[in-house]
């Protein structure tokens, strides 16, 4: 199976000298294409740093990140911006929609920023899949939190990115709405072959993934295929996440 994204001996140190913090320590891992991976670990274990480095939003102190066949090491900021626009999708906890734009305008924004044409039938499919068919002219303030996150997911899918990265995408949603959003991400993987990597604190959210990577103190300490919420919660307890 080919890998959508690969990290080799990636380390990230914030600060210098006495105050330096090693947020990632020689992390090596590959994410197979068309899979759903959850990233978990105690607070401060390096999850956000992992996501930022894997997504080209932050530059590792050492080691290499590859997206498909592209080595991100040495790409300048313009090249990284271009790569993120065209080849990566993002879903954040806070939705990050533009309030002045309609649903359709928000969804198609990455295409317009990248100067890419809009494939109407794909846009229609994405809008239909996320269940926003009747809402395309609305603005974010006229939508519920769950609907806003659906717009963000559609925006992430519309460029057919190689990977969609999620940073606590259900963190701001109630339990039922979170389940709908997780089901949607699951379907993007199962039905569309999308690759998804999601940081979460929630064992139930992680149970929607094909596998879970556990980080502790900047290292990957375990990987769990076919996770259940119970098994994930137990592993997190053993990592000392919920003392
Ligand atoms: N910009 C920064 N400057 C200095 N230290 C940082 C910076 N970003 C993160 N860190 C440190 O790096 C370590 C890992 O942080 P990171 O945010 O990746 O952890 P996390 O697992 O996502 O935590 P949480 O679950 O609390 O969000 C922590 O010790 C954190 O304090």
Automatic annotation (TrEMBL):
GO terms for molecular function: ATP binding; ATP hydrolysis activity; transmembrane transporter activity. The keyword ATP-binding applies. GO terms for cellular component: membrane protein complex; plasma membrane. Residues 5-242 form the ABC transporter domain. It comes from the Bacteria. Keywords: ATP-binding, Nucleotide-binding, Transport. This is Putative ABC transport system ATP-binding protein. It comes from Nonomuraea solani.
